[in-house]
Amino acid sequence: MNKKEVKQFLERLHNIAKELNKPLDAPDVIVAYDKKYGGYSIELSDTIVRPIYFPKESTKEISPL
User: Fold this and answer.
1) What does the alpha-carbon distance between residue 18 and residue 15 come to, in Å, rounded to a whole number?
2) What is the spatial distance between Cα 23 and Cα 61, in angstroms, rounded to a whole number?
3) In whole angstroms, what is the distance from residue 58 CA to residue 37 CA?
4) Closest CA to 9 of 20, 29, 58, 54
């Protein structure tokens, strides 16, 4: 993953968010990106997608019964 790839990815996400009239972190944005561009690399997922769309504070651990 290089700076150019990160920049392009973020620009595309911003453009899709504008097209959808949604905030960047709306789930519809990453779903639309996936449909339009056919996914993204594991590196982009780990460094950009997960922190934006799956922040730790929004995920609750499930405890066993």
Assistant:
1) 5
2) 26
3) 26
4) 29
Record the pTM.
0.82
> 13 near 30, Cβ under 8 Å?
yes
Residue whose entry in the numeric block shows the structure tokens 């993204």: 40
Amino acid at 63: S
Residue with tokens 């990453």: 30
Contact partners, residue 12, CB within 8 Å, separation at least 6: 33, 36, 37
**18-56 residue pLDDT tens:** 999 999 999 999 999 999 999 999 999 999 999 999 887
Could you tell me the pLDDT band of residue 58, with boundaries at 50, 70 and 90? low
Where helices occur in 1-65 by DSSP H, the ranges are 3-20, 27-37, 42-44, 50-53
